[in-house]
Amino acid sequence: MFEIIMLALALSMDAFAVSIGLGAKKVTNLNKLALKVALYFGLFQGLMPLVGYFSGKGMSTWVNEYAPWVAFILLILIASKMIYESFVEGIEEDITQVTHRVLLTLAIATSIDAMAAGYAIILMDVGILLACLVIGCTTFAFSWLGIKIGNSSGTWLESKAELFGGIVLIVIAFKVLL
């Protein structure tokens, strides 16, 4: 269960960072924005590991022997992407209006890594539905918090969240190999 909590924290950092950027936009109805962002990000982040899990289960008979290495490589790639993104500007600066279409696009973009992480969940001793629930709820909470932090303090924490998430995923990747 510890691995799932750490995975949930790491995966939610991408959504957290984007939420901080969106919260810094100084919108008029902050609570409504926080709820919408948290629902979109939490739902997609919670469902995508399920997609990755079942697609990985379908392929696991072919690559059963190499499954830990495949999970390791996927997690390292996701972590590398997150660490790289912690050093470059986010897309939130280009967004002028936070519409449902924008939130849907951002929710999908921030949850692609959760789909890849779903493959790693196959190797963990935890139920996939529990894992998805923990990941979704964690992302919901961090997205809500990100909006509030972004609104009150700007975007200074944004890149640090993605860097932290990437480092945690690297640790999980090495743990999968052991």
Percentage beta strand: under 5%
Q: Please give the radius of gyration in angstroms.
A: 16 Å
Percent of residues in helices: over 70%
**Poorly predicted ranges (pLDDT <50, ≥5 residues)?**
none
Query: Mean of the pLDDT scores?
Result: 80
Q: How many separate helices?
A: 6
Task: Specify the structural class.
Answer: mainly alpha
From the spread of the alpha carbons, the general shape counts as globular
Total tally of structural domains? 1
Largest sheet descriptor: none
Number of DSSP E strands: 0
The run of helices and strands is HHHHHH
Distance between the termini: 16 Å
What does this structure look like?
The protein is an all-alpha fold and 178 residues long. It has one domain (2-177). Helices cover 80% and strands 0% of the residues. The chain has helices at residues 2-23, 30-63, 67-85, 100-121, 128-153, 158-177.
